[in-house]
Amino acid sequence: MAKQPMLKFVTTQREMPAKREADVRNRDFAEIYAEYADQKAKEQASRCSQCGVPYCQSHCPLHNNIPDWLNLTATGRLQEAYEISQATNTFPEICGRICPQDRLCEGNCVIEQSGHGTVTIGSVEKYITDTAWEEGWVKPAAPEVERKESVGIIGAGPGGLAAADMLRRAGVQVTVYDRYDRSGGLLTYGIPGFKLEKEVVMRRNKQLEAGGVRFVMNCSVGEDMSFEEIRAQHDAVIIATGVYKSRDLGGPGAGAKGIVKAIDYLTASNRVANFGDTVAEYDSGELNAKGKKVVVIGGGDTAMDCVRTAIRQGAESVKCLYRRDRANMPGSQREVQNAEEEGVQFEWLTAPAGFKSGEADAVDSVIVQKMRLGAPDASGRQSPEVIEGSDYDEPADLVIKALGFEPEELPTLWGCPELEVTRWGTVKAQFTSGRTALEGVYAVGDIVRGASLVVWAIRDGRDCAEAILGDLNSRAAAIAAE
Questions:
Q1: What string of pLDDT tens digits covers the 482 residues of the chain?
Q2: Are residues 263 and 355 in the same domain?
Q3: Taking phi first (over 0 means left), then psi (-120 to 50 degrees means alpha), and beta for anything else, what does residue 169 get?
Q4: Which residues lie closer than 8 Å to 385 by C-beta, 6 or more apart?
Q5: Spatial distance between the Cα atoms of 388 and 20, rounded to a whole number of angstroms
Q6: 181 lies in the same domain as 230
Q7: Mapping DSSP to helix (H, G, I), strand (E, B) and coil, where does residue 452 land?
Q8: Are 221 and 131 part of one and the same domain?
């Protein structure tokens, strides 16, 4: 009788890939986790209970067929595991690295709820796809039939690139327009290399280009090219710009030098550390934490990226202010743990009330208010309340605002007032298809949802590509019938 390859969670303990020691990894921007060896990947995949209702799959935005590719990995059928993995996910090696699995698939694992420790789904997913690249199983698009229709995609982030890949594989002519010099959006310039190595992103960009996707870089819509020009050149247009407008912070002294936006800080760091670019603001010290007392304001994943980047740049100290407690922060708990190991100090239940400046109007401290959690708000989370008289000064040479992102005013920037937006500034579009009220114009990702996860942008891009293919087919059938 064949030995049961699965259900080993009772006898085999959960084991993540080895993590480099904190006092070593906090000196560079390299990946902090080692790769699973083949036997270890099989062992950890074999812990899956193959439950009848896979909550891991239902809580994955892409509804990845996780139980099946875990089973295939455990039984040594790795190429088949990759085929199943990439069938629903355009970038599985990226999701395996940066998805908050503790809040999605792994956080809903049945064996975790029974006290045995979740299956390490993200690490196995990463191993499967990294192996697929090494073995040459990952192929660029090679459509059997080329179609004459073309689609223009504004924004080279995960949503736009996912749509580009799906459309190109169907034979559609695809052009991607982006304001930056490298494609990838926040994957390239927002997320640090120690979470997502840049060669992983560049490899996908090259694959898309090899498959026939055309990239027009350094193209700012509304300046270098109008929205109407792009619409005129294509049968359909996808808006996938993401949200890049940083939420601001008021209070006395908020305009002092040394108070910077997270996106500017992370972009400069990624350019210098990962691509060797020269960035004047980094060289001048404006966007460089070396030797400084750093205070980061915010509790999301962007704040975690900032604090861990500052440590690696050689900051004298790094503190993170967040107005709620640890249990109520939006960022990944795994990221908080990594940051603490690397030397970051978290000041829970604190918020800035203002800033004080020293010489040359440069910030030298943050006025910090202590908070407590009061009654729940409309979302059900307890609202932070100020504890009167609890203010204190926190010394700071560099303050990084990581308060989240909002949409830019696209109708104004693009001279297209008929492009409908919500009261939050996001583009009005159908969630399932991305269709807007404008003929042939679609929108996906954060510009529709607001700031969200990469995995949701990928889901939106794939869904939108499917809807566009359906619309193009319907249009072609109608013309043929005339």
A1: 346 777 777 788 889 999 999 999 999 999 999 989 899 999 999 999 999 899 999 999 999 999 999 999 999 999 999 999 999 999 999 999 999 998 899 999 999 877 889 999 999 999 999 999 999 999 999 999 999 999 999 999 999 999 999 999 999 999 999 999 999 999 999 999 999 999 999 999 999 999 999 999 999 999 999 999 999 999 999 999 999 999 988 899 999 999 999 999 999 999 999 999 999 999 999 999 999 999 999 999 999 999 999 999 999 999 999 999 999 888 888 899 999 999 999 999 999 999 999 988 999 999 999 999 999 888 888 899 999 999 999 999 999 999 999 999 999 999 999 999 999 999 999 989 999 999 999 999 999 999 999 999 999 999 999 999 999 999 989 888 87
A2: yes
A3: alpha
A4: 371, 372, 373, 374
A5: 43
A6: yes
A7: coil
A8: no
pTM confidence score: 0.94
The one-letter code for the residue type at 415 is: G
d(CA 441, CA 231): 8
Q: Are residues 162 and 256 both part of a single domain?
A: no
Cα–Cα distance for residue pair 279/363, rounded to 1 Å: 22
C-alpha 480/C-alpha 458 separation (Å) is 33
Q: Tokens 């193209």 correspond to what residue?
A: 219
Query: Looking at this protein, which amino acid is placed at residue 251?
Result: G
Q: Are 92 and 121 in contact (CB under 8 A)?
A: no
Claim to verify: residue 196 and residue 286 sit in the same structural domain = no
Cβ-proximal residues to 266 (8 Å cutoff; 6+ apart), any chain:
189, 190, 191, 192, 302, 305, 306, 309
Asked if residue 389 and residue 422 are part of one domain, the reply reads no
Shared domain for 275 and 355, answered yes or no, is yes
3 state SS of 120: coil
The three-state secondary structure class of 400 is: strand
Tell which of 111, 135, 159 closes a domain. Answer: 135
Range of the domain at 465: 150-243+407-481
